[in-house]
Amino acid sequence: MRIALFVTCLADTLFPEAAKATVRLLERLGHEVAFPPGQTCCGQMHVNTGYQEQAVPLVRRHVRVFDPYDVIVAPSGSCVGSVRHQHAMVARRAGDVRLAARAESVAGRTYELSELLVDVLGVTDVGAFFPHRVTYHPTCHSLRMLRVGDRPVRLLRAVRGLDLVELPAAEQCCGFGGTFAVKNADTSTAMLADKMRHVMSTGAEVCTAGDASCLMHIGGGLSRMRAGVRTVHLAEILASTEQDVVTDGRGGLVVGS
């Protein structure tokens, strides 16, 4: 299958390993991954902060770039949620009925990574190996907008060597919410403190999720606390194999960066 990678802004600029891992994983499963070079921001930030008119050119560009592809994947529930739930709405409010119809068509072919693997490709065991204790944070957009359910957990349970521990109060928001964390910093920080407390209570070495934005927020807090817990995108875990395992010089195992 030929699959177009919708890389997202955060993966492109700050967390490229999540995008690279997505490509490695899909290619290992026998699929061709295309990277449309004309892609830019999907416009989610603009829409969420009230700049719908300014988002229209971004929606139009996104539709033009990805319309030629039958299947599109992104390592982000947040951006896929925007494509599915905002693009056609933005186009309709701008009075562009044709764009709205094309946006709906593209949205129907756009998947978050765990959706693509489980629902489209029909696989839960991707041949991954990750010998670490891991807890999973279900991000708000993937949980509430996309309703990915237990798909990420099913994928993680099939990873050899991985010890998956349940995260208490998992469905509570981590406090990021894009510009919410900037405009409501005190509230965001309090929500983050709760999330970090729950993560650390699991004794996990790694906290994973399907959105780099939430991992950036949680990981930043854990780093400042010197908690000894690192954040790793779901794609990076699923892309890991025995060949990626190296020793840390003390006989321990380290997978990924």
TrEMBL record:
Q: Record's Pfam families?
A: CCG
User: Which residues are in the Cysteine-rich domain?
Assistant: 3-82, 134-218
* Protein name per Swiss-Prot or TrEMBL: Glycolate oxidase
Q: Which organism is it from?
A: Micromonospora andamanensis
